[in-house]
Specification:
This protein has about 350 residues and is mainly α. The chain is about 70% helix and about 5% strand. A two-stranded antiparallel ribbon has the order 1-4. It has 15 helices and 4 strands. The chain has 2 domains: about 220 residues, no CATH class; about 70 residues, no CATH class. Keywords: Cell membrane, Membrane, Transmembrane, Transmembrane helix. It holds the Pfam family BPD_transp_2. InterPro entries: ABC_transp_permease, LivM-like, TAT_signal.
Length: about 350
C-alpha cells in the first residue's frame, strides 16, 4: 500500500516563510526592449550615415552627461533623502582631475575619465565629515557652500588656467572622428553600467535599507541598519557618478573653466530633470534628461526667458503630475520599466 505524501510537520510557533517578488512580465519585456536599444546604439556608427552619425553621437554624449548627473542626484536625494544643491562640486572636480591627468600626467584622457570620477569619490570622503554635521536645509546650503569653495580654489590655480580656464591639449594628436567615436562609446558604457548598478543596488537588501533610512532614520537604526555607513556609501557613490559625468562632459567639450564646471546650474538642472521625470524612480532621470535636452535644443537661445520657462514648467508638472511624468505613466498605463517595489506573494 502506498501512503500519501505530506509535508513534514512544522515546529511549534513557526510559520511559513514569506515569499517576496520584484518585477513581472512587463519588466521582462522592458529589459528585452532596453537590450535592443543598447544594441542599436552600440552599432550606430556602422549603420547611420556618416554626417548624421557624428551629430547623433555628440548629442548622445550630452544626454548621457545630463542623465548620469541627474541619476546620481536622484539616488542621493530621491532614495537616500540627502537633498544636496552642491553636487556640482564633484562634477567640476571630476572634470579638472581628468584634465590634470591628461595634460600633465600623460594619461590617455579616456582612461582619465573613470580616474577623475574615482578622484571625486575619494575627495568626497573627507568632505562628508563636514557635510554630515548638518541636517535638513542646513545640509543643502552647506553642500552649496562647499561647491563654492571648490570653485574659488580652482579659480586661483594658475596651473589650470585660473578663472578663465584652459583646454584639454592631451587630445590634440587624435583625429576628430576617432575622438568622437571613443567619447560616444565611453558614454554608452557609462550610462548602461550606471543604470544596471543602480538598479541592482536598489533591488538588494542595502537598497531596501536606504529606503528605510530615507523614511525614518530612527526606526531604521532601531532595526540594526548602519545609518551613517549607508549614507556615507551613497554620498560617495553619488560623488563618483557626478565626477564621471563631469569628466565625460569636458572630454567631449575639450575646454573647462571654474564657472562652467562648478556652476550651481548643474544641480538646478538635475533637480529639474528629476522633478519632471519623477523623484525616487529610476525612470525619472531618463525621462527628465530627454525632456531637458529637447527643451535646451529648442529654447536655450532665449536666455533668461528660457530659464524662467523651465521653472514654470517644473511648477506646472509638480502640480499636475505630483509623481512626475514617469510616475503618471506608471499609474495610467502600468508602465514600470525598473521595478524595485517588493510584493508579498503569501
Amino acid at each position: 500500500m502506498t501512503l500519501p505524501l505530506s509535508a513534514p510537520p512544522m515546529p511549534p510557533g513557526s510559520r511559513p516563510a514569506t515569499r517576496v517578488a520584484i518585477g513581472g512580465p512587463a519588466a521582462r519585456r522592458a529589459a528585452i526592449a532596453a537590450g535592443a536599444l543598447v544594441l542599436a546604439a552600440a552599432t550606430l556608427p556602422w549603420w547611420a550615415p556618416a554626417e548624421q552619425a557624428s551629430a547623433w553621437m555628440r548629442e548622445f554624449v550630452e544626454i548621457a552627461c545630463y542623465l548620469l548627473f541627474a541619476m546620481m542626484w536622484n539616488l542621493l536625494a530621491g532614495y537616500g533623502g540627502l537633498v544636496s544643491i552642491g553636487q556640482q562640486a564633484y562634477f567640476g572636480f571630476g572634470g579638472y582631475a581628468m584634465l590634470v591627468l591628461g595634460n600633465f600626467a600623460g594619461v590617455n584622457p579616456f582612461v582619465a575619465v573613470p580616474l577623475g570620477a574615482l578622484a571625486a569619490a575619494l575627495v568626497a570622503v573627507p568632505v562628508s565629515r563636514v557635510a554630515f554635521r548638518l541636517q535638513g536645509g542646513y545640509f543643502a546650503i552647506g553642500t552649496w557652500v562647499i561647491a563654492e569653495v571648490f570653485r574659488l580654489s580652482v579659480a586661483n590655480l594658475a596651473v589650470v588656467g585660473g578663472g578663465s580656464g584652459t583646454s584639454l591639449t592631451a587630445l590634440r594628436g587624435i583625429a576628430r572622428p576617432v575622438r568622437e567615436l571613443a567619447t560616444y562609446g565611453l558614454a554608452l558604457v557609462c550610462v548602461v553600467a550606471a543604470l544596471a548598478l543602480v538598479y541592482a543596488f536598489l533591488r538588494s537588501q542595502r537598497g531596501l535599507a536606504l529606503l528605510a533610512i530615507r523614511d525614518n532614520e530612527v526606526a531604521a537604526e532601531s532595526q540594526g541598519i548602519d545609518v551613517r555607513g549607508t549614507k556615507l556609501a551613497v554620498y560617495v557613490v553619488a560623488a563618483f557618478g557626478a565626477g564621471l559625468a563631469g569628466a565625460l562632459y569636458f572630454v567631449g567639450n575639450l575646454r573647462i573653466s571654474p564657472d562652467a564646471a562648478f556652476s550651481v546650474n548643474w544641480t538646478a538642472f538635475a533637480i529639474f530633470m528629476v522633478v519632471i521625470g519623477g523623484i525616487g524612480r529610476i525612470e525619472g532621470p531618463i525621462v527628465g534628461a530627454l525632456v531637458f535636452w529637447a527643451l535646451n535644443k529648442a529654447f536655450s537661445e532665449y536666455g533668461t526667458w528660457y530659464l524662467l520657462g523651465l521653472g514654470l514648467l517644473a511648477v506646472v508638472v509638480t502640480l499636475r503630475f505630483p509623481r512626475g511624468l514617469a510616475g503618471w505613466a506608471q499609474q495610467r498605463f502600468g508602465l514600470n520599466l525598473f521595478p524595485t517595489q517588493r510584493r508579498l506573494l503569501d
